[in-house]
Structures are given as structure tokens and as C-alpha cells.
Amino acid sequence: MSSDRRKFLKQLGGTIALTSATLSSFAAMEEHEYRILQAEKRYSANDKVRIATIGLGIMGYNDTRTALACPGVELVGCCDLYTGRLDHAKEVFGAHIFTTKDYHEILDRNDVDAVIIATSDNWHSTIAKAAMRKGKAVYSEKPMVHYISEGLDEIKTQQETKAVFQVGSQRVSSLAFKKAKELYQSGAIGQINSIEASFNRQSALGAWQYTIPLDASPQTVDWNRYTAKDQKKLPYDSNRFFRWRNYREYGTGVAGDLFVHLLSGIHFITDSKGPDKIFAIGGTYYWKDGRNVPDVMSAVIEYPHTKEHPAFQAILRVNFISGEGDHSSTKIIGSEGVLDLSDEGGGFTIRKNKMPVAPGIDGWDSFGTYTTAMQKALMDDYNKKYSAADQQIPNIPGTTYHTPAGYDANIDHFNSFFDGIRLGKPIVEDAVFGFRAAAPALACNDSYFQNKVIHWDAEHMRLG
């Protein structure tokens, strides 16, 4: 056994506290052990996956670094519309890599096996479909589409081309989410009835006021390419390019950027295809910087009863000026407990609560409003029906789990993508899963801007 694997198993033993009654299997841990062994494997030139990144902003840059941390991966080229990012790519990844402002030049290269698409949201689907038609595997940042209307055509393209396609919501590959799913499916929290999930932020950077380079101008930014799909042509605007998440024309707001993460995790754990009713409210309450999307948004989303799960309600919230500070949470609430996933899938707790057999009497009850004689008669009858044990609230120990120190779900997510390319293994977040998470998130925007309930057919992936 390798030293890395021994270290992992030792860490695992110190970070998991699960009872035999709630632990259904060790599948998630076994899979991670496999990942460690894969990392030790030496790949031949024929096994190597050659990638190129299209869009070198925050996610593109970090996705590229994560992909290169996986064994047997080589960066061939990069595409971005800002000259400074192409120059920086050569500084970081090597002067030999190919750089361009035209993504078609990346797709035309025979030495590119796969592309990472991390552009502004409005270009995700267009480039993904073009890449698949060119025979490239695609890792698309979330949401995979800018508009719901793009989804079915992108799925059709993937099915026709048979291209390997994965969406970048890494929590569905997280060891913590996989273990949480096992416990949820084992009945650890009883019957699900509601979910509360949120992202809170309290910083200018967290609210997407990203740093703009001093040389930003039409000379260093290819504004014409960037706005080629715009219905209304606007003059060059550095904010709209470097802070595109703040504008509906290029991004999808907090719903498409963050709700989609929450929904991806929810759908993964519950095996849900999606909700049937969505309503959202919000506003721009603090960051009045010209953005045309909310900085605070809440959504109520209803999931119908299906063969996968009972009916339940999800409440999602993003707050970009939260006094709670930077914090995210997903609480899956059942009839007998709460599964509380910590920030970014680093772990979870399960708190157990179960009603006693007896319904209760006295306390906050109409019992005390009756005559003394009636109260005595009721109490005698109650004690005959229910034993002392039946009247006790069960004390059930909870569960705590933390991923091992240094664990990175992003690497597992990319390894899944590369396994799909090399070995033909099923993709953990394919186009159908990705769209079923993206569509309800984008429907939150439709609900907010149209001020109405949006109906969604999750089975057939179309608006109701």
C-alpha cells in the first residue's frame, strides 16, 4: 500500500464518526482510494489528454491549474479576449503554449483532445456545441446555458456527437456529498420534506467587483468578439467585460452562478430530476454599481412526489451583503433529522430528532383549560395507553464527517472527466444532469424579472 494511501486512510479514521446503523457502505471512500491510486499511475504518451482553455478569467485559470494537477494531462493552448491574460498564461504555463483571441483556432487544432469552457455565461453553449462538433471533449463551466431555450439543443448535440461532456459543479464529485448521499438514502433523516440552502457574502470581491487592469481598453480587449451575440451594440465598457457577472447580457446573476451549485448538490443527493414550480424575489439593495441583476435573491422551489423522492420544498437564498459574513449552507430536513452540509462540501453533520410514540399531554395544550376532574381522568387514560418509555423523546446520536486534510473535490471532478475521455466511464455531471440543475436556477431569474411563478417539466426538460 502506498504511503499516500496509508496517510489518507489514517486521516479518514480520525475524521469520520458513523454508526453501524446509519452507515450503508464505504463506496465513497473506496472510490477516493481509487483516485489516489490513479494519481500514482504513470501515463504513456498515448494516454495523455491534451487540453486547451477558452476563457482565462478566475474560473478558467483555476480550472486549468486543477486539470493540470491530474495525472497525464498537458496544456496545449489558451484563448481569451484580453491580451494581458494571454501574456499571463505564457508566464504561468510556459511560453510554448498556443494563445489566441479566436476560439475557432483552438477548436481547429488536431492536438487538442478536450477544452475547458470558462467564458462569460452567454458563450458557454455556443462554444460547447462547436467544440463537440469538432470532436473535442468538453468541460463546461456552470451554468451550461445562458438561456433555458439553449438546453435541449446542446443535449442533442452531445448525444449526436457522442462527445464526452461534463459540467463544472464540483460538489457532485465531493467525497462529502457522496457520503451524505449514502446516508440520506439509508434513511438517516427519515422522509425528506424541505431544504434550506444559501450563500452569504460580505465583500466587494464576493459581490463581483473584480479588479480591472490598468490597461483595459478597446486595444487590449476584443470587444467586438465579446459582444458579437448582443442584440443591442454598446460601446466598450470595462465593467461589462471584467465584471460580466453583474450584467444579464453576459451572465446569469446569483441564480445562474450560485443557485445552480445548490441545486446540483440537492439533485445529486436526492436523485431528483428537478422541481415543477419556481418563484423568486430579490433586488439590488446595496451594490448600486450599475449592475442589472439582484445582490439579494430568495427562491421558493417546489418538488413534486416522484418515484425518486417524496414531495418537498426548497428555499434558496443568496445575500451579497450579509452580516453573517462569507458562509454557505445546505440543510436537508427530514422527519427524523437534519443533514447539514458545511461550506463548499468540506463535511457534514446529521442531527437526529424523532417524536416519541406518545403524542404528549399538558404543556402548551388545551389540557389545562379543563376541569380538575377532567384533567385527572385524561391523565389516567394517557398513562394507561402509553408507557414511560413511549412518553420519552428518543435520544439518538448524530453523525459528523469531514473530508481528509488537503482533499480537493475539484480534482476528483476533473479526474471523472478524464476517466470519461480515457476509459469511457460515465460522466458524473453530464449534459442532462447539468441542464436539469441549470434550468430551475435560470427559471428563478425568469420569475424575478417577470414577477410570476414559473412552471417546469423536469422529466421532459421544458417550461410548463
Q: Helical percent range?
A: 25-40%
Strand order in space, largest sheet? 1-15-14-13-12-8-11-10-9-16-17
**In the CATH hierarchy, what is the superfamily of the domain at 26-171?**
NAD(P)-binding Rossmann-like Domain
Indicate the overall shape: elongated
Enzyme class: oxidoreductase
EC number: 1.1.1.18
GO molecular function: inositol 2-dehydrogenase (NAD+) activity; nucleotide binding
Keywords: Oxidoreductase
Describe the structure.
This is Inositol 2-dehydrogenase. Keywords: Oxidoreductase. With 464 residues, the protein is α/β, with parallel strands linked by helices. The protein has a domain of 146 residues: NAD(P)-binding Rossmann-like Domain (Rossmann fold, 3-Layer(aba) Sandwich), CATH 3.40.50. Helices cover 36% and strands 19% of the residues. It has 15 helices and 17 strands. It has an eleven-stranded mixed sheet with strand order 1-15-14-13-12-8-11-10-9-16-17. Strand 3, helix 4 and strand 4 form a beta-alpha-beta unit. The longest helix has 20 residues. The radius of gyration is 25 Å and the shape is elongated. The relative contact order is 0.15. The N terminus is likely disordered.
